[in-house]
Design brief:
By secondary structure, the chain is mostly helical. The chain has helices at about 1-5, 10-25, 30-45, 50-55, 65-75, 80-85.
């Protein structure tokens, strides 16, 4: 969240305050996590990029971290998601 707050030239606390005011329920962290997960899903479904390249493009430290992050929010690994998403 600090990364995005810095890019907007505001404090993380103010970013969170604005998020709650606009959405009435979601924190800035929730909104950011939802967007990142959606972006990972789009890249897994619409490209043949290796997970390592997706991790690099989305500024994750490494493929392993992206895998743990994705599994925490979706319940499946990126490769499992890709396989299921490509199934007829």
């Amino acid at each position: 969240m600090a990364f995005y707050a810095d890019r907007l030239c505001i404090t993380p606390r103010y970013l969170s305050f604005i998020s709650r005011q606009v959405t009435r329920t979601k924190s800035a962290k929730d909104l950011i996590n939802n967007h990142i997960i959606l972006e990972i899903k789009v890249l897994l479904e619409s490209t043949q990029l290796p997970v390592q390249e997706i991790a690099h493009r989305l500024n994750f430290p490494d493929q392993s971290y992206l895998g743990r992050y994705f599994k925490r929010y979706t319940g499946q690994s990126p490769s499992q998601y890709r396989t299921l998403a490509k199934s007829p």
